[in-house]
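sanity check this record:
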Amino acid sequence: MTAFPSYAPEMRLRFAGRPAPATLRGSVTGVTCQTGMGDADRLEVSLANEGLRWLDDPLFRLDTEVSIALGYAPDEPRRLFTGEVVGSEASFPADGMPMLRVIAQDRRTRLAAASPARWFGVPIPKLGVLPLPDLVVAPLLAVEHGMVPLLDPLGAFLSAALGVVDVVATAEDPSMRQRVVRRQHSETTLDFLKKIAAENAWELIVEHDSEPSGFVLRLMSPAAFLSPDVTLRYGHSLMEFTPRISTVGQVARVSVRVWRPEVHLELTISVGYDWDRQSLSIEVSPGFERPQGGGSSGSEAFLVDEPVTIATAPRLIVAKLIPRLNRRTTASGSCVGDPRITAGRVLRIEGVGETYGGLWRVVSAEHTLDGGGYRTSFELRKEIWFGGIPPAAQGAVRVQGGLLSLPAPNS
C-alpha cells in the first residue's frame, strides 16, 4: 500500500467542464466532499472573496456542472464528485475577509425534487393489471431523470427471486395482484426509489470515478462486494477509530401478520438471525403472536404494523430485518486523506483486536482539504455478509496480554 503522507496533496476543480482558473484556485481556502448511500453526495468549496470578486461570477450559477478530483502528486488524482451547483452562501463580516461558499450536489437532487403520482403496472385483458418488476421500475426512475442505472448481477438475481414470489402468491387472486403493483403517492421519486432499494437489499450509490461521471446510479447489492478496497492499520495509516457494538439485536427478529382469506386464518411469519450461530430462522405459526426476540438476552423483536399479504411479506421482511442487523456494530474514524475511501467501499481494519478488526462497509465518507492538509473521515458498519468469513482472514487478530501480533505493514 502506498504511504500517502509522503506526498503533496493535489486538487483538480472543474466548472462547466473546464478547469477552474488559476485565480479561482488561488482563492480556495478549503473543500469538503461528502459521499453516502441513499441521499445525494455533496461538495462545498470555500473561497476568500477579496474585493467581492467572486460574488456574481457566472461560474457559480445554479445548475452549473462542477467536479473535483483529489490525490497526491505526482500520481493522477481520483475523481470524487461530479454534480451541479445548487446554492451559495456569502458572508460579509465587520472585520476580516468576505467569504463565499459554493454548494453542489449530485443528480439524485433531481429525483428528490420530483413527486408525481403514478402506478407501475401493465393492463392485461382478462388478467387485470400485472405489476412491473422492480428490475424494470428502478431503472426507469433513474433514466427519466437523465441517469444511467447499473444493477449488479447478484442484486438482479435476488430481485427476480422476490418477483417470482409475487407472481406465485398472486396467481389465483387478482385483488392481491393489485396490491403488489408499485404506486408512487405523496413521496419524492428519490424516497420511492429508496423504498424499492430497501425491499431488494440494494444500496443507491452514484459512481463519480467512471464515465459518464456523476450520471451512473448503481443499484448495489452489498453482498456482491466483500473484498477489501483499502487496508488501514491503527498506529500506522488509521489515525482515529471509534467502534460501537450494541447487545440489543443479538438475535434480531422481524414478524409480520398475514391474513389468508381462503382458510380464514391469520398467520404470523417471523424471520430472525442469530449472530452467535450465524444462522437464519424462519417460523410460521397460526394466529397472532407478539414476537419475543428468540429468547436471547438483549435480543431485538420488531412487529411490522402495516397491511401485509403473503406476496408483500418477503420484501417487507428484507427491508426491515437487514438494516437492523447491519446497525449492530458501527464505527467512525479518520485517516490521512485517501481518495479511494468512498461510500459503498470495504475497509479492512487492522490493529484493533478481534472484535473490532476485519471488514467494514463505508456508509459515508468526508474528504476535507484546507490549511490543515488533506484528511478523510468515515462512518462504517459491520454487515451480516462479513460474518461468514473467518475473522483472521479479514485481518482481525485477538489481543493477548496487551500485545497484538501483526505482520509488517504493506509497502
In short: The chain has eight helices and 23 strands.
